[in-house]
Fold:
Amino acid sequence: MVHLFVLGVQIDASLLKHTPRKALAIGISSFFFPFTLGGLAYSVIANFTEIDSEIKDGLPLIMAVGSMTSFIVTTSLLTDLNILNSELGRLATSISMITDACGWCVTTIISNVTRALSVTVYDRLFSSLVVMGYYGIAFFVLRPFILRIVARTPKGEPMRDSDFLAIVSIVLAIGFFGEYIGQHAGFGTFMFGLSLPEGPPLGTILVQKLDTIASALLLPIFCTVSGLDTDVFLVIGKKSSVIVQMVIGFGYIAKFTATILPSLYFNLPFAEALSLALIMSCRGIMEMAIFSSWRDIGVVNKQSFTLLIINMVIVTGLATPIISYLYDPSKRYRTNSARTILSSGDNIDLRILVCIHNEDNVAALVNLLETSNPMRGSPISVFALQLTELVGRTSAVLAPHHQRNKMTSNSTHSERIVNAFKYLEQRNRGSILVQHFTATSPYASMHDDICTLALDKRTDIVIVPFHKIWTVNGKIEASFSQIRSVNQNVMNKAPCSIGVLIDRGHHKGSHPSVVSGRTLYRIAMLYLGGADDREALAYSKRMANHENVSLTVVLFNKVDIEITRNEIGKGIVYKEVTVNDGSGTTSVICELEDDFDLFVVGKHHEPKSPLTAGLIEWSEYPELGIIGDMLAAPEFRFSVLVVQQQPLVDGLMHSPKLPKLADNSTSI
Structure:
């Protein structure tokens, strides 16, 4: 009961209004086709054999539930498979909402009609009035009362314990009274939860406080009790068991067929269509709750209940690993075209995707964009993606910020982030264009949103913030392991180059900014050789064209010296240093520490290079590379940008031809 209420709170019913036509067509087909065929199969079976009265009333309901796919079960399955916010995951979510809505309507009608036929007209009328009064009080009296409680809770502050207990008491009362009048307690509380707004603040608070108890304690108990109510020996060797199994099996086959055929018609690849059909065939907690309610009110007997549970476990258990094997959303990001800063050229629109987890990321990202030297002749297109964890709702969202605001209540902190980038755009009118996006998804699959947007917008580089935040005195203020996992996944799968920005600008009292122009923004580019260093150098060169930026390229052991001198442009200083091992490299960096505001370095370098010898044993953040990991040490007070060229595709790294520029550099 509590678990179903929590699930209901997390559902955003308004998403039905935004269902794509493809999902609507597949959803209607995957419900009504198996439901219609199930009815025909039932008629054929009834004509050829006599059906036991104990199972006869339950067969229509079994056909109905075999045609539906629970939205909650689908989103839970997609979350477990880490594909909730993938292209297929979003399609499956929309389809399941359609089939779920159809299923609830049909099963409710059939169930009430079946029960009504067994009582007098007076009893039917009285029962209908009681049920209407039950839901009327829940929706029009108790729901506004809860919303009033939420409204009086100050923004940003936790809900009072007394208010939370009042909400829980209301939920329990709805469940118990629903059970008393013949409505399953879980169904009543689920519908009540569905009527409440999903997401923050109410949905988030309820999920945080109730989900652990409901999912970790009550749900396993419910599943165990349901399992104990099954009796495998009861279904062996009985004719009625064969009939029930035929209806159940036919429902699964029809469901699978009714999903895969329309999917292929809409030009889905066969592997994705097959995965979608398997997803739609999976069952879970909602179906188990429905089966239990039918068993309790006598609509299905223990024999039918046992067969329903066994089929559910077998089909879902087999389908899950098959889906995981067939569908890999990262395949979509693998491209043979180079999306790098090197390949974009100097006078072409530079397209940058910046990822924002919280307001602490904004100042450093804005300053980096300013430093990137936006000009009318060489503009920058910025795609600002606000990333939030999926809490208090079930469906992942990736949408332009203004569309997302229409679907949910405005967030103050989100608007402050948008305003910061709007001010950046106004200050650089004609040279910077900013588009705002919002993504809400689980951390485990959040990289899919980033990679999807990077692919769709054909970005040259993705900038992600480092997962640690430092205080002014250099101590670690916060560390987010989930953000680190997101960064690692992005660096492995992004369809373009990636930059990890380690922000320590506030160590100097305030973020050094190129806008003020009071002092030069000093950048050091550490060049040890390799494709990533060439990409980092290309980005650094663009920054060096800014009038308030000074760039020093530090060349270690004359690596790629001829290529590098051709790359370095006018006004860039290069410094040649010779070291014997990693200790020497560390000493050089320590000597430069106080002279620069930002260090830029590539992630990967030549394998077994003497320049990094002895450093790999001390690596704490391998996703930053050997040198990047060293620069992330808390002893340093400068900011760091670690650049990685577009990840491997089919075992090959993109290495576009290097530009041949005039050698106008200065040596010191």
